[in-house]
Specification:
It is built from 2 helices and no strands. The protein is rod-shaped. It has helices at residues 2-24, 37-49.
Length: 50
């Protein structure tokens, strides 16, 4: 009976930690914007010639 109770409490704690971790994790919601310096310079060079 103690083993079953401890397993249930461990699962509840694990679930709570998972929910807390997912709620504080913002990697999935963060948009990654990469600016390539070479492409940025190429656009400047093209706009300077026109």
């Amino acid at each position: 009976m103690v083993l079953i109770g401890s397993l249930v409490l461990a699962l509840i704690a694990w679930g709570g930690v998972e929910m807390f971790g997912e709620s504080t994790d913002n990697d999935a919601a963060t948009q990654v914007q990469e600016i390539i310096p070479a492409a940025k310079d190429a656009v400047k060079a093209l706009s300077a010639t026109t």
